[in-house]
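Recap slide: Suppressor of tumorigenicity 14 protein homolog, sequence and predicted structure.
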Amino acid sequence: MRPFPSRRVSTIFSIPTPNDSEYLSGLGLSLPHSQSSRKEIICLKHSFAKKINECLWKRWLFGILPVISLTLTVVLLVTYYTLSPAFSFIYIGGSVEIPNLSYTSDLTHPKSHRFIAQAEAVQNYFAELYGSSALGTYYLKSVIAAFSEGKTGLRAYYWSTFWAPQDIVLTIKNVISVKQKQIISKRRPPKINGSAETFSFEEDFDIVTMELFVSDSMDYDVTLKSVAFDLYAKPGNNRTLTLMNPKKSFYQWRLRVPSDYVVRLVVVTAHGVSPGSCTSHRLSAYDFLLPLQNKIITRWCGMSGAWTSPFIRLTSSSNVMLVTFSLDRRKESHVLKAYFQAVPKIVCGGHYISWNGTVTSPYYPSYYPPSIDCHWIIRAPIPGYRLLFKLLVIQVQEQSLGSNKCDKDWLEIDGVRYCKPVSEGNRIKEYGYSVAISFHSDELVTHRGFYIEFRAFSHTDPCPRQFKCSDRTCVPLNSKCDGWKDCTDGSDEVDCGCNPVESNCGNGKCRHHSKMCRGDDSCDNDSQEADSCSYKSCPQRAYKCLNGKCPIKLNPECDGIRDCADGSDEMNCACGRSQVKKTRIVGGEDARSGKWPWQASLQLGTYGHICGASIISNRWLVSAAHCFLDSDSVRYSIASGWTAYMGIRIINKNNNNHIAMRSIKRIIVHPYYDQYISDYDIALLEMEAPVFFNELVQPICLPSSPRLFVYGTVCYVTGWGAVKENSQLAKTLQEAKVKIINQSTCNKLYDDLITSRMLCAGNLNGGIDACQGDSGGPLACLGKGNRWYLTGIVSWGEGCARRNRPGVYTKITAVYDWIHQYTN
Ligand code: ARG
């Protein structure tokens, strides 16, 4: 026999309506104004006449005398309105926590025996609780929708239904609409009788606090009509939510994680939610396991076209989240791909003493959770120094309409509240020696939050412990005279005692660039030369010889001069030359024959062209990892299903005589490839037999370092992909000239989803881009020696050629070493 809880805790929430106070004042009562003091305690009578005295002293104890008159009024109204004929339903959604009972995996599934038995026990409890209260006359039933792991026990989510005259409905709604009301009932907890699966309640009394929300019939209907999926993610696991052309109109996923974690939801693709159809198409996330209006974290509707790749990351405030998807089945195809994971619950805020750092909203760049308050104190390390704040991002729920201050979510710095975007000119502010920062989110609607960079400075020492560039920006001290320009104006490399063609030995001596790292002795023995030439301490992004040495000369490869002792900088130089002497993709044009001789078309059996690829040697092709992800019906991951067509310009099923065709022997997907965020989106394909190079078939060069390109490099993306969003593949190979877009600009456009293995290219005004079917194909840039280098692999983008949504490519320099491991 297992004792049932001694105390059950739950809370009631609903959206407060202006009527609350009106209603109460009509009764001669008033509501306190501050949110926290708006908590009301109501005595729900189990056995009204018998236990009223016990209840009374409790009320006195809590000091909420007015509630008695409220209750009495409700009773009077109830009696009065029982005679009223127009009845309607009222739905109350809520949760109750049952201590001493624990959540087990079988409680995830509503069809399990344990779920059914446990639900019945809670339902009986409600029947008794309401049955004996003033609401008893109107109470119909309670349905347990789900269970989750509670803070101290088992949490049950339920809907209670009442059938009451119109006016009573309003009264009940108004009474319950007081924010975070607690219903206290003196009852003894339910006990489990006999086997673990039989439950009953004892007749005694105990205190129960419940969380309740008045809801409309829509929410309740949706719960009943939905196809529901119940999922639980253990820490470290990603659990997926997928819908492909669903047959039903309502879907919901109840997501759970362990109790000291929160849920992070990552939506990867949502397709088919057309604009202007908010009522029928929408994707919503709730901070609760029931679809209650006052628990919405975020809602999307009116999304146009397809969203590809991760566009949103949400966080819950507790260990549950509900995701609902309603759709209009008459419309096109619908696709939803998302996953969720358990993220340890963080304690936000703190006291920091630092020269520089960052402060962000909790879980940034994921959306912050609802109902959170954080407080930070930031202090400069030495009195006399001040703090300089740069507010780089602020996206929070804005103030209510007509309100003149931030009253929903806000960031407060030194007493000033922010909840709206801050203009470029107002982002940097100077504060005193110590600054207090607070962040508040209410229980509804969340956003990305905020991101602040700060540093300490004084007017006499603007870059403490850092190097001050001439343009007054600061860079780390060790950037000074390290041979690399860290200040945008290069001021960290002047006055290093060396002239422009020399490099600094690091010991105060200088040597001609071409002499560095040759193993001779023009830097003294005690110099850093040995170090700066070894693989380990090669400056970041420097070219590395095969033997691990790094010549300090910029871009030593393929320039006809042997810079590495092992000559490796002059190997593999037969690449990147297009034989055309002078010569879709959205917004591109037909490519001339032989202009892009490394372009291959990857075709899968009868499906034809699926992805692009680039030839990097006579045995190897490079493409995107996502081209080889299996779908429900097609095995894209099987190498033997694929054929690479090379040396072609027009995809023509009938005329394949003069082209190079090779079967694929092996597909190597990057081990870090992450399908959810498209990180490391690269795969190597080994051909069954080597291909012969000719005018139309040539390899492209691989760039070992971005220094092979000059600023403003010309780049082209090529492929047979769709010529506009949601349209057909091109027949003739298309080329489009695109610009490389600054990484941090792109990260802002894409909500920080651009990892350092990605790069963006396109045209921010839209109109020119890669598109579906171009994936895996090359982004080729003209680099050193007038050769074309494979700079990126077409990977993803939001739609195609949209304004401020550039194409995202796998950055080859970031995976160069991995490619080399296999292909050299
Ligand atoms: N993932 C797409 C494909 O499979 C390529 C998308 C590129 N999108 C873009 N807007 N650049 O073909």
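The first strand starts at residue 8 and ends at 9.
Residues 721, 769-775, 794, 796-797, 800, 807 surround arginine (CB under 6 Å).
(End of recap.)
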